[in-house]
Amino acid sequence: MAERMIDPSLLALLRAVDTPTVCNAIEVAQGQRGFDRYTRGTMQHSRPGDPAIVGFARTARISGLAPPTEPPEVIRARRMEYFRSMAAGPSPSVAVIEDVDAPDCVAGWWGEVHVAVHKGLGLAGAVTNGVMRDLDVMDEGFPVLAGSIGVSHAFVHVTEIGTPVTVHGLRVAQGELIHADRHGALVIPTEVFDTLKAAIRTVMASEAIVLGPARAPGFDIAKLEEVWAAFEAART
């Protein structure tokens, strides 16, 4: 897909809010409920307190359950081509990697070495349905959202580069804008880029209608009935 640049102020805001807030804001920007480009199920986060992962997807597929059938020189060349692809494209960028062995993923592509390499190449983080490991020695500043935690690299190798991938039910094409945190990941549609910042502010303001009174002394059902009507009128 054609990749777009992202406004620096929007990027800063996206890094400061969680993925559920962005999901709600996309619906505000679209003017309706039903947005569904997000992961399904529970995923594992390498550093749950880190800011959100935000960036344009650099995609690939891997496998590791069985040895590759191609010649070793082909496998080695493709891995280096994978690194070249990860280093290319607009910034910020995020590795979005599908393990084609799902649901039987065993190969820890994301560990100490690959985190250091991808961070050094300038990527902001990774999203995968596959395995991560080396949690205690991963570099800071490169969060990984993975399908599981494991111990082995098994027979891991790259099978495809730059093609659309599917991670926990989320279809992602190269160049799409990703937002991810401990809750999961989603794709931000390009058509909401220009209005998303205002939509995030709208979501936060509408939730404050209920949150402020609910957390204040003297809150009761009568107060809830009063503020909930205003909340319903304000939200999408």
Structure characterization notes:
It is built from six helices and 13 strands. It has helices spanning 8-16, 19-30, 72-87, 112-120, 196-214, 221-234; strands spanning 44-45, 53-63, 93-99, 108-110, 126-128, 131-132, 144-146, 148-149, 157-161, 165-167, 170-172, 177-181, 184-188. Helices cover 33% and strands 23% of the residues. Helix 2 (19-30) crosses helix 5 (196-214). With 236 residues, it is an alpha/beta fold. The two termini are 29 Å apart. Strand 10 (165-167) and strand 11 form a beta hairpin.
Condensed summary:
This protein has 236 residues and is α/β, with parallel strands linked by helices.
Tally of individual helices: 6
Overall geometry comes to elongated
- Helix/strand order, N-terminal first: HHEEHEEHEEEEEEEEEHH
Major pleated sheet: 8 strands, mixed
Say what oligomer this is. Answer: single chain
Helix share bin? 25-40%
What's the count of strands?
13
Tell me the strand percentage band: 15-25%
